[in-house]
């Protein structure tokens, strides 16, 4: 019997009726946590509502002797987010970790994106992460400890086509996580991000319109949601008590710590700059440090290992 790293802990996992969230919730429970399974049971684009997925995962957990409760509130609603956290406290007596995993996709090229498509994705990913985190923060502060695990994406950290809403939300989550880490560190609260590579409903929406793209998708299918769960459990546990404000990526059997923006090169002129001088001197000196217009697949270009 392996050691239960989450014994005695209570965890909320949003969007855990399927995909990455479900695998995180299952492993949390196997590692001894009591888990609130939150999922509105919507489609990938956020339409519809079903209590089925959340209750099904609760049944799976109870089948192996774990403890879980189902919740179908929307993280996009601040009152709904508060109810998720209150359910954890009312049902299990406390809350020790929030995994902000809930998300939807409305992929569209920027120049074709509607305000509604922009708003819907930001509301679930970024606002949802804020609302649930804010609801849990007071409990964490009062008890002198707690952990946030947020799902970011290389779509935001690096870039991807036709995902302005999703990319903005996911990069926003990285900034949110860092701020939480800074503001709550004195209370023993930690906040970290995972950028997951996994075959899920979200990745399943990738357009396959060439043999190269088809081959890439087949490789991505090796990266199952279960590969993400161990890092999420670790970051939620006391074993990670000194890990705070970091961004990790998981790609099949690889774990990365990701860089965070820092100055890479500078130019100085004692008399200041004019637009002409910037064109003649500053930009030529800085150009070698420019970033290219990469997408995530350009940076993570090797096969999953």
Automatic annotation (TrEMBL):
Pfam family of the protein (one): adh_short
Ranges for domain Ketoreductase: 9-202
Gene3D superfamilies: NAD(P)-binding Rossmann-like Domain (3.40.50.720)
Highest taxon of the lineage: Bacteria
PANTHER family xref list: BLL2957 PROTEIN (PTHR45024:SF3), DEHYDROGENASES, SHORT CHAIN (PTHR45024)
Family assignment from sequence similarity: Belongs to the short-chain dehydrogenases/reductases (SDR) family.
Protein name, as recorded: Short-chain dehydrogenase/reductase SDR
Protein species of origin: Caballeronia choica
